[in-house]
Amino acid sequence: MSDSRIEKLADVLVNYSTSVKPGEWVGILGDVAALPYVRAVYAAVVKAGGNPSLMLSDEAMARTFLRDANDDQIAWLDPMQTLYYDNADVYIRIGAQTNTRALTNIDAKRVQQVAAARRSWLSTRMQRAAEGKMKWVGTLVPTEAVAQDAGMSIEEYEDFYFGATFVSTGDPVAEWRKLGEMQQKKIDWLKGKRHVRLQGPNIDLELSIDGRIFINASGERNMPDGEIFTGPVEDSVKGWVRYSYPSIVQGRAVEGIELRFEQGKIVHATAAKNEELLHAQINTDAGASYLGEFAIGTNFGIDKFTGQILFDEKIGGTIHTAIGLGYPDTGSKNVSAVHWDMICDMRTDSTIHVDGELFYKDGTFVV
Question: Over 90: is that where the pLDDT of 3 sits?
Answer without folding.
Answer: no
